[in-house]
Amino acid sequence: MSYLEKIFLFQKQLINKFLSEQQEDGSWRFPCENGPHTDVYTIIILRVLNMPEEKLIIRLAKRLLSLQERDGTWKLHSDEEDGNLSATVEAYTGLLFSGVVSKNDERMKRAEEFIKRKGGLKKTHNSTKFMLALNQLYPWPVIFPIPLTLLILPRHFPINFNQLTSYVKIHFAAILIAAYKRVTVKTEWTPDLSHLILEESVLKRLKNQVRGKIPLLKRLKDFIFLKKFKAEALKKAESYILERIEEDGTAGSYTSATSISIFSLIALGYGTDSPLIKNAAAGIINNSVEIADNLHIQNAPSGIWDTSLIACALNKSECRCPEVKKAVRNASSYLVKRQQNTGAWGFSESNSWHPDVDDTQAALRTVQVEAAVDPEQRNAFNKGFNWLLRMQNKDGGWGSFENNRGNSLVKHLPIENIKDTAVDPSSADLTGRVLEFLGDVMNMNQGHPVIDSAVKWLAENQERDGSWYGRWGTCYIYGTWAAVTGLRAAGLPADFPPLLKAERWLISIQKEDGGWGESCYSDQKKYFQPLPFSTPAQTAWALDALIAINGKTTESIDKGMRFLAEEKGITGYPTGGGLPGSFYLNYHSYDLVWPLIAVNHYIKKYKTENNSN
User: Given 358, 395, 424, 523, which residue is catalytic?
Assistant: First the structure.
C-alpha cells in the first residue's frame, strides 16, 4: 500500500467512525472528561440531599478508584511528577463520603501518606478548601477575600460584579452567598479529616492570629457589609442564580456552579427537599456519561462543540457521498435548534445563558453549508455572524465570553487563578480561529478593518520563540496552530515574518517519531513543556499549521502525516485547557476530529503532488 493510500484509508476510517456514531437528532456526544472534582461534588451532593442513588454513588466511587495511581495519588495529567495534592484530597474525601472504602483501606492509607507528606489540607488549592469548608471539614477564613457587596457596586466603580466574565459570574454569585453565610452542612456520611490538618488546630491558629484584633475585624466587617446593603446583595446574588437555572435544572449548565448553588440555596433557607434543589441534583446526574466500564459526571457536556467540529471536518473531507451530506445537514439542523436568543451558541446543549465565541464560530462553519438554500439556516447564520463580529475587542482580538473584559482590576483580587478565570482578554486561539473562519468561509482578508486589527493583535502577541499561547487548549501548539491558520486564511503570505518564526518553532519541537506532544505543565509555567510522547490531537494541530504555510509538502509534514496515519499517538491525554494547574479536559473527540481535519487539508493541498511522485 502506497503512502497516499494509507492516508486515504485513515481518512475513510475516521469518516466511517463519525457516521456510525451520529445521534438520531443530528448531534455527536463524545465524553468530555475531567479529573475527580465533579464526581466528588456529585457524591457529596447526593449524600447531603439524602438521595436514594446508591448505585450511582458506587459507580462514581469505582471511577475514582480506577484513576488512583499505585502510589496512592491522583493526577490531573499522566506526567504530573508526584501526584496532585488537591485532586488527591478531593478523591480521598469523595471516597469516604461514598462509604465504598474506609480510612483503613490500603489504597486510602497510601493517599493519606501522600497528603501528609505534601503538607495536608492547608496546602491544597483554594477551590478544594472551599469544598471542604462547605462540609465542615476545613474552617472558613476569618474574612473572605471578596466581599458580598461586590454584587451591588455600581458599574462605574473600578471593581464591580459586571466586570467578571459570564461563566464566572454564575459561580461567583453562589460562592459569595456561601462564603458570607459561612454555610456548612454535616451529615452522617461526613468523614473526619482532622488527621490531615498538619498544624496546631486551624481554629486555634486562626484565633491566635486575630486575638486582640477581633474588635477591629468586626468593625471592618460591619463597614464592608453595611446592614442596609447586606439584604440587597444577598437578594441580587439569589436572583442572579435563579434567573440562570437551565431547563435541565443546572446553574448555567455547569456541574461545578450547580453544586455550589445547592449549598448556597440551603444557606438562604431552601429545604433540601425543595423542587429547585432536587431539579438541580437531577441536572447534575444528567451530565453523566459512560466511559468504558465507569460512570463520570462531566462539568458540562460538549454536544454543541463536538457536533460543530465533526460536521465541519466531514464537510471538509470533500467526500460527496450521500451519507456525509446527510450527516452534515442533520448536524446543521440540530445546531440551529440550539441557537441562543443572542444569535450565538454555547458549549452544551442545555446552555442558554453563556454563549461563547469558539462554539459560535465552529457552529457557523456547519450552518453555512445549508444557508444558501434554506431560509431558516440563512437567518440563523446571519444572526450568529453579526454576534461574532460584535464580539471583537477594541485591541483587535477575540476573547471567549465577553468583549473588552481583559483589563479589569478584578484580576488583582487575592484569589488563586483569578487572572485565568475572572477576566476574558483576547487570546491567540480565539482570535486565530475567528480569523480563519472569516477568511475561509466569509472570504474576508487584508484590507478589511476587522481583519487588519486581528492580524495586528496576533503579530504583536507572538512569543519570542515564534509560538502563541492558547488559552483553551494545551497550549502553545494549540495557540500557534490557531494563529497560523488564521493568518494564512486572512491572506498573509507564507514569508510573513511571524509565520516563518512559527514554522521554525513547530519544526524544532517535532519528535523523532514524527509527532508532537505538549504537557499540561505549559499553561502553569507559561512556556512550552514537552511531553515524553506524542498525541494525535497535538500532532494534528502542528501538522495543520505547517500545511497552511507550505505550498509543497515537506519532510516534516510527511513524517508527521505518517505518524498520524499509522495511529502511533498516545490517546486520552487531556489537551483541553480549563484552569491552569487545577482543571483539564480530555475531549474524547479530539484524537479523532483534529487528525481528520489535518488529513483533509493534506489531501486537498498535496494529492496532485503525491500522485505525480
Answer: 358
